[in-house]
Write a structure and sequence with these properties.
Length: 137
């Protein structure tokens, strides 16, 4: 039997005024967690065996976190406050309770077009440290 699950019940949280406590963003509809990519360096030389290029691993990069939410216009908007804050601590909680915590800063906060459909917004967060995975509380 598979252990696969759906994302229902996941949260994106912003650390509140009390360190270690996170306030969940309302009505999040999609979260793309931190990912990892690695560059490579060509280390080929004139004596590389069998005329095959040789590569070595180089620096890693943390990919941005993205999430979408149902946008409800308001005179006070936590996403606007966060992009102007210049950085903070964030937490993604999976349906099984496992938490991914990381520091970073908002790269973008973009409300979508106003149409006859649902209003939405997209947020992109750049992680600045390797995330920590924590067991379900």
């Amino acid at each position: 039997m598979s252990n696969a699950d759906i994302g229902y019940g996941s949260d994106f949280g912003i650390e509140g005024e009390t360190p270690g406590t996170y306030v969940n963003v309302a009505e999040v509809t999609r979260i793309k967690p931190v990912g990892y990519t690695r560059e490579e360096e060509d280390a080929t030389h004139l004596q590389s065996p069998d005329m095959i290029k040789e590569f070595i691993p180089a620096l890693m990069e943390l990919t941005p976190v993205e999430f979408d939410l149902n946008w409800v216009p308001s005179e006070s908007d936590a996403m606007v406050d966060e992009i102007f804050a210049g950085g903070g601590n964030y937490q993604i909680t999976a349906p099984n309770g496992v938490r991914m915590q990381f520091s970073g800063f908002f790269l973008s906060y973009e409300p979508g077009e106003l149409t006859n459909g649902k209003m939405s917004a997209t947020v992109t967060v750049r992680p600045t440290v390797k995330p920590t995975l924590l067991a379900a509380a």
